[in-house]
Amino acid sequence: MKILSSFMLLSLVLSFGPRTLAINLGDKMPAVSSSMKGIDGKMYNLASQKKSKGTLVAFTCNHCPYVKMWEDRLAILSDEFKDQVGVIHINSNDPEGNPLDNFEGMQKRGAHLAKVVAEHKGQSTKSAGLSYPYVVDDNSEAARAFGAEKTPEIFLFDAEGILVYKGAVDDSADPKDVKEQWLRMALSDLVAGRKIAKASTKAVGCGIRFRSKDS
């Protein structure tokens, strides 16, 4: 893998805004009071996304180089497991920090990922739509409640709302170098009713630039 640029290294270690205590394995899914607007114009909340086997919550954005390297794999996984595990992708970044993270940018990113998933499934990309919600956390309430700090950062909950996996998508941002598909393994274990073999990994990404609580 090529040496990371200075921007990416800086993004890795910095987060912008107040840090909160992160939830840990075995904790319940945080209660987030507000509904969040999806790129389809509909409103979503975390509780409504729960499916029979659990819920996958992914903190992501549009501009981060790490997100761009992992987003295709994350989108494909999200679509593959969406019938048994509820999925929601959340953008908590303040677009004042980077205009690419605004709502229009989210819609463009969602359209791109919908085509990626359609191509992966051998389907037409002409009318492809994202098969799970991509929502804006307009006051960063969700990120604060989870203690999320990076994009991408994954939180996987079981059917009882207990955190059973937390961390990264897999062990390399470069798809050619992936040896362990951590999230895929965790989702497979969860759906099969097995104990998660590797329940915690290190999320690598850009720091979340928190929005004002009054946004």
Could you please describe the fold and organization of this structure?
α2 crosses α3 (103-120). With 215 residues, the chain is α+β, with helices and mostly antiparallel strands. Residues 1-19 have low confidence and may be disordered. It has helices at 6-13, 65-81, 103-120, 141-146, 182-192, and strands at 36-38, 43-44, 54-60, 85-91, 134-136, 150-151, 153-158, 163-167, 206-207. It has one domain (6-18, 51-195): Glutaredoxin (3-Layer(aba) Sandwich). Helices cover 28% and strands 17% of the residues. The relative contact order is 0.24. α3 (103-120) links the parallel β4 (85-91) and β5.
Write out key terms for the chains shown.
single chain, 215 residues, alpha+beta, Glutaredoxin, seven-stranded mixed β-sheet, two-stranded antiparallel ribbon, 5 helices, disordered N terminus
